[in-house]
Amino acid sequence: MNSTVLNLDHDHVELLIGNVETAADANAKAVQNTVLSPRFYTTDFAAMDRLNVEPVRAEWDIMMQEYEGDNNHDHFQRDAQFAEEVKTLMPQLSPEMRQEFLDFLISSLTSEFSGCILYNEIRKNIDNPDIKKLMTYMARDESRHAGFINQSLKDFDLGIDLGQLKRQKDYTFFKPKYIFYATYLSEKIGYARYITIFRQLEKHPDKRFHPIFRWFERWCNDEFRHGESFALIMRANPHLLRGGNLLWIRFFILAVYATMYVRDHTRPLLHEAMGFESTDYDYKVFRITSDICRQVFPIEVDIDHPTFRACMTRLVELSVANAAAKQRGGLIGLIGRAVTATQAVFTFGRLYLVPVKKQALPDDIRMQPVW
């Protein structure tokens, strides 16, 4: 089935992502809480402390050895070529493209730092040796990722104050099972996004407009391994994968997919510069993520169903309309925002009712990042 192509003009892009010109703008954007922005989470630490991974002990111990080996310990270091490429390529970006790229960097940093904070808070508040060790390793990785992105923002004199971000951004409480579903999906879709970009630019190096993309292959393997960790936790606790919890799994898959789809369609120039079209790129990422999720989720959303695709397109249109209503302001703007928000809820409901595919879980839980 052909993807629906959405064309947003530059006014729409500016309307949806805004302008970042100063470090204060960048920090304010990172602190923002919107439907599309990455969130910071906290959870029930006592419940995390009670987790048991004995049913997957053999796989767990192998994974811990991989974390301890830390094959990316020297990866997140910039070389002379990096600085030279930044100096040469960044002045070539159009003002609109610059804003889209900055939005990508700030959103990515906030997402990485969100994981760092969550994992570190869990580590500090539990005694369970298995989970404590895991959280220590994952917080280490996410800290590196966030710091590496922040270096690129500092090239624009737009560095994020991570200490201030931690203090000022609102936190959302999630039960542990919601953390597992959402974070597993976030890590795996992060892998799918980065590897899709890396493979594209590997084939077309002339479209690599920033050197950070050269780091994405080994970087995304960290994300993949983090997802593996949550897959093992869920498979060790199979009640999380059956009964009423299947409804929550369905919800989180759709929420993660829809959020990515709408957000990516605010950055058409970014994808175009890399030789993608936003819709095609997103469905490539959905397909990889769905393939991976078969290791742990007994259901899969049908990304090729006509209603699924129509609803995704509609959510983008409603996001644009909602932003326009907000910009208009006044009573008419307030009514417009209420109407588009209601329509978005209805559209997500239609998305939720699209029939899912069911599948048996494989005996072998672990997967390798072979995409």
Overall description:
The chain is mainly alpha-helical and 371 residues long. It has a domain at 20-72 and 80-240 and 279-296. It has 15 helices and 4 strands. The chain has helices at residues 10-17, 23-31, 45-49, 57-69, 80-89, 95-124, 129-155, 162-168, 176-203, 216-236, 245-264, 268-273, 278-293, 306-328, 330-352, and strands at residues 40-42, 171-173, 299-301, 356-358. Strands 1-2 form a two-stranded parallel sheet. α7 packs antiparallel against α10 and α14 runs antiparallel to α15. The longest helix is centred in the N-terminal third of the chain and has 30 residues, at 95-124. The radius of gyration is 20 Å and the shape is globular. The model is unreliable at 1-5 (pLDDT under 50).
List strands and helices in order, with pairings.
Elements: H1 10-17, H2 23-31, E1 40-42, H3 45-49, H4 57-69, H5 80-89, H6 95-124, H7 129-155, H8 162-168, E2 171-173, H9 176-203, H10 216-236, H11 245-264, H12 268-273, H13 278-293, E3 299-301, H14 306-328, H15 330-352, E4 356-358
Parallel strand pairs: 1-2
Antiparallel strand pairs: 3-4
Helix pairs in contact: 1-6, 2-6, 6-7, 7-10, 9-10, 9-11, 9-13, 11-13, 11-14, 14-15
